[in-house]
Write a structure and sequence with these properties.
glutamate-tRNA ligase activity; Rossmann-like_a/b/a_fold; alpha/beta; EC 6.1.1.17; binds glutamic acid; elongated; three-stranded parallel sheet
Amino acid sequence: MTGRFAPTPSGRMHIGNMTAMLAAWLDSRARGQRMLLRIEDIDTPRVLPDADRWIMDDLDWLGLDWDGEPVYQSQRIDLYEQALRTFDGQCADDSPIEIDMVPRETPTGVRSDDVAPDTARIPLVYPCFCSRADIRAASAPQEGDGFQIYPGTCRRLMRDRPDMVRERLARGDRHSLRIAMPDIAVSFDDAVFGPQSFDLAHDIGDSVIRRSDGLFGYQFVVTVDDLAMGVDSIVRGRDLLHSTALQTYIRERLIAAGRDDGAAHPAYAHIPLIDNAAGRRLAKRERSLDMGALRSRGVTAAQVTGVCAWLLRLAETPEPIAAHDLLDVFRADGWKPLRAEHADRRLDPDDPLLPRWLADAV
Ligand code: GLU
């Protein structure tokens, strides 16, 4: 099996990012698997110069190694173009997903009896002329993590007024490309969060695969890359749980279009998020907890690793420990302790277990 680190070089990594990196590394290396590094720099406006080098330096510093050269998404545009072209001529209601005897712990699609009526004859990938403001105005208020479900305006335009769509394209109107979601539930068994099921049309909605500025969207490139790189073991933050359903669907469509028929379904482990003292998810702009700030204050790699291991429930206290010394712990316990207690974790400066250097920083 093959695992991967997939950091976005939009800033220096913080304790939450490092916890995810440690989890991914342990999952792969404890089983002697291959580990790849992919720098997710496709969203160029968010990329900070040198952040890729800081990431590699911080991974090195913690003793988290990878195999081969890092892969940069910004250098793979041709691959994404090719993948997009395999969707040419496909319709949203071609069912690519077979219902089979599904081995446990693998994602699968289950097609419901009815095809959503407006899926009929809609191309799998269609142009969307909506601005963000249009979408906000036509949508129900966002909930939870702010995942916005596209209200389907341009899907209906495509169905009802294909001539107008052609005209607008010929005129060069600014548009993104969306992938149409069928009325299918995607289920998978997450190693930490257990059985998951998402209804693609209702929980996810038609999703952008190429933005109106011409850049490919995260969900599409991650799926193309994981498939092309042979990644079949994915460990990342639980904010991406529902993205897994979308990525499973895109992956199935890519495989059905002949991009890789031998590909196994990946195994997934999503890990809880780490919140700051105020209960908000750690962000890269919170400089006090980033690796640069911690390292310059003399915090050691073993101290950081100990906190990450404690956040992953691999240790009862955040004692310093080297990453390679955690391999045996992970081999013995795996995801079991985290599965039993997977609520997001708040870094509370009043927690007597929190080491001084961390309590001072939060
Ligand atoms: N690059 C994404 C991030 O930093 C992670 C993507 C993934 O693990 O699929 O949030």
